[in-house]
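User: Design a sequence. Structure:
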């Protein structure tokens, strides 16, 4: 038995566990841990009172509320409509389906600056959509609503592309069996389909939320960047860097990093709990 294990270990296609683990840890440290550690180390240049004053100033707190609030709301909206779009693309065959499927990936390929300029042109007072919303008292461009619109635009593909493969692999016999047992369409969806999709839906939600938190290019054009109103946290970090306040920039970045990590950890915990309930 020992000889067979040794031969198997020698003749594997991939490198051995020790080498693969070493390369993995080296790459993660080089790409992820070292840059993040540098942010924490640079923040230590501030004393504790200076750190607290920097990260709790009214302007910074207002940017936290807008950034995290709009990101969560955009991710929730994308979770609902992303599921709907994925459902339509998988379960229905209609003319132009391939075109619609390709359009879902457009926010991936479109440069963020182009997306921001396009959204601003559409939702400004004289834009194609804004000119109809302004008379109704709905102002999108240069308001927090514009921030939400931009975050929703860039986050939708994450949900669709995460849920779509699960829907494609899901056997239609499950729904047919539920219908045979007397379940309504709503019961079949909530009791059979949704529990299977929930882990993928939570993953898409987390990805859309994380992307919205770090988005910069497409937001600054449509937000207007007015302090205390439509100013996002990444813009404040860039502003402090331009002022050569590196310690202040890293202090805000550290707070944002910690808050993002806690929220994503909670989402991943919910995802693991859902899978455990399903017996996976």
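Assistant: Done.
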């Amino acid at each position: 038995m020992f000889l067979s294990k040794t031969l198997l270990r020698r003749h594997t296609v991939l490198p051995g566990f020790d080498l693969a683990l070493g390369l993995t840890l080296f790459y993660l440290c080089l790409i992820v841990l070292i840059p993040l550690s540098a942010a924490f180390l640079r923040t230590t240049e501030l004393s504790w009172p200076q750190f607290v004053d920097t990260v709790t100033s009214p302007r910074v707190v207002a940017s936290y509320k807008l950034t995290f609030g709009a990101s969560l709301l955009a991710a929730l909206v994308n979770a609902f409509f992303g599921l709907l779009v994925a459902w339509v693309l998988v379960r229905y065959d209609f003319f132009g389906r391939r075109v619609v499927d390709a359009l879902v990936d457009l926010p991936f390929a479109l440069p963020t600056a182009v997306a921001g300029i396009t959204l601003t042109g559409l939702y400004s007072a004289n834009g194609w959509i804004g000119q109809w919303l302004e008379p109704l008292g709905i102002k999108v461009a240069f308001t927090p609503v514009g921030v939400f619109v931009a975050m929703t635009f860039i986050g939708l593909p994450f949900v669709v592309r995460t849920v779509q493969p699960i829907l494609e692999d899901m056997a239609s016999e499950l729904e047919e069996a539920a219908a045979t047992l007397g379940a309504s369409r709503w019961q079949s969806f909530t009791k059979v389909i949704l529990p299977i999709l929930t882990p993928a839906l939570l993953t898409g939600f987390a990805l859309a939320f994380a992307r919205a938190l770090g988005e910069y290019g497409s937001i600054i054009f449509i937000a207007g960047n007015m302090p205390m109103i439509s100013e996002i946290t990444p813009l404040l970090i860039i502003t402090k860097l331009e002022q050569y306040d590196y310690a202040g920039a890293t202090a805000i970045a550290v707070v944002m990093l910690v808050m993002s990590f806690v929220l994503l950890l909670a989402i991943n915990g919910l995802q693991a709990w859902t899978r455990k309930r399903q017996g996976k």
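The chain has a mean pLDDT of 85. The chain has 14 helices and no strands.
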